[in-house]
Amino acid sequence: MKKADPNPKANRHILMITYAVAALFAGLVLYFAFFLQIKSENVINNSYNARLDSFSDRVVRGEILSSDGRVLAQTNVDENGGETRYYPYDSMFSHVVGYSTKGKTGLEALGNFYLLTSHVNLAEQVINELSSVKNLGDNVITTLDVDLQKAAYDALGSRKGAVVAMEPDTGKILAMVSKPDYNTNMLAADWDALVAGGNSEGQLLNRATQGLYPPGSTFKIVTALEYIRENPENFRDYRFDCSGFFHYEDYTIKCYHETAHGSQDFVRAFANSCNGAFANLALMLDLGRLKTTADQLLFDTPLPIAIPYSQSAYTLTPDGDTWQILQTSIGQGQTQMTPIHGGMIAAAIANGGTLMKPYLIDHVENVGGDVIKKFMPQSYGNLMTAEESASLTELMRAVVTEGTGSAVRTDAYTVAGKTGSAEFDKDKETHAWFIGFAPAEHPKLVVSVIVEEGGSGGKTAAPIARSLFDTYFSR
């Protein structure tokens, strides 16, 4: 009997299926390796992972320490083996360090896996297991600076708001304060009052990362950057005569306290935070490109930060109406921003246009001081060019030397910044903003401040920033 000839088409199909299966298998292996190296800790440390809490049956929760080794959170064990989580600074680090009872927040949540993992030496682990003694968990050493945290905490005082301080060239968060706050050591006793329906203070909310506010005149950084991009050769030639009011069609934009700034060029209009000049300028902009610039500066975009945050909002579209254009140009309307986001924008400007990912954990070490895991600075990407960064720094420097930021003017160091007074309710005082960095020529510290109903950013928020700059540069 004659043998049938092989079917080339069938063989080709079999070969294609073989290649496809091999490719899928290779992809699965690669993803498995990626998951183990990159994603596994996030999954293990997920708040919904009930198994992680069972680690506490065998491990005493480790300590959380400041960058210079001061204890921010520790577990005290009494003679009967009872454990109490203790926070030496009471309320001062309440939001950023967080708590580990009633759920977990802040660094207690972010570092949960490390705090419940023990790397004591093997012999000691064996002895402890045989003696039914818990092993000591690893310690999380943060990027937080106690002196800067205290300066921010004291300067904000009893007012509602938030302060964030960070290094622009590394992304290290050095201070994070939110008020109203709560005494972390009294959390269990105060819990019912803190979560009561009639409580409108929001003490548990971390305003630094989750508080959304109209950015006010700090948004003029975005508007100015877009104008620079559309007019790279002649943006400094812009002129505007300010009478304290800007009338266009049926709309009127007022400068803060109806101040008449007179003849303004581009730099002076930014330095004096002239609403009329920026409203007029915005009418010349390509709204589609303005939207792109806002997106590049992380509006309507996930932020590269590991703790819970609210996403900032920018709603002006290319077909937006005149009133929305005028309002958005000066940071009003429906635009909203968090203090940490404002700090990131300032940090990118300070770092030549490159944003470093903000982070809070420097390294993890065992109880003997051996480093188990080290976290290194990571670049998020370029939010702008180095030339654009230099132009914005020039504008922000003018805010301090001749404009609304005089409260941070000093001979001890140079500051570049932007103030803001953000309206949110016609019957209430404005929110006060300041974002900036120092030294202006070689930035080392970025500060972002919001004071709810604080009035003028120059008079209320800038002095708070000054307290942090003074503390940092006096050491």
Describe the fold and architecture:
- The chain has a six-stranded mixed β-sheet, with no helix packed on it.
- The N and C termini lie far apart (98 Å).
- Strand 14 and strand 15 form a beta hairpin.
- Helix content is 37%, strand content 19%.
- The protein is an alpha+beta fold and 475 residues long.
- Helix 7 packs antiparallel against helix 17 (457-473) and helix 10 packs across helix 13 (287-296).
Task: Provide a concise account of the structure shown.
With 475 residues, this protein is an alpha+beta fold. The chain is built from 17 helices and 19 strands.
Radius of gyration over all CA atoms, rounded: 27 Å
> What percentage of residues falls in helices of 4 or more residues?
25-40%
Q: Roughly what is the average pLDDT, rounded to an integer?
A: 92
Helical/strand content category? alpha+beta
Amino- and carboxy-terminal Cα gap = 98 Å
Number of beta-strand segments: 19
Low-pLDDT runs of 5+ residues are none
Query: Biggest sheet, in brief?
Result: 6 strands, mixed
Sheet-strand content, in percent, reads 15-25%
- Assembly state (oligomeric): single chain
Organism: Hungatella hominis
Protein name: Penicillin-binding protein 2
Transmembrane segments: 12-36
Pfam family, one: Transpeptidase
Write the layout of secondary structure elements.
Blueprint: H1 8-44, H2 50-53, E1 59-60, E2 64-65, E3 71-77, E4 83-86, H3 94-97, H4 106-110, H5 112-115, H6 122-130, E5 135-136, E6 139-142, H7 146-156, E7 161-166, E8 173-179, H8 187-194, H9 207-210, H10 220-230, E9 239-242, E10 245-248, E11 251-254, E12 262-265, H11 266-271, H12 275-282, H13 287-296, H14 322-329, H15 339-350, E13 354-356, E14 361-365, E15 371-374, E16 379-382, H16 386-402, E17 416-422, E18 431-438, E19 445-451, H17 457-473
Parallel strand pairs: 1-5, 2-6
Antiparallel strand pairs: 2-3, 3-4, 6-14, 7-8, 7-19, 9-12, 10-11, 13-16, 14-15, 17-18, 18-19
Helix pairs in contact: 7-17, 10-13, 12-14
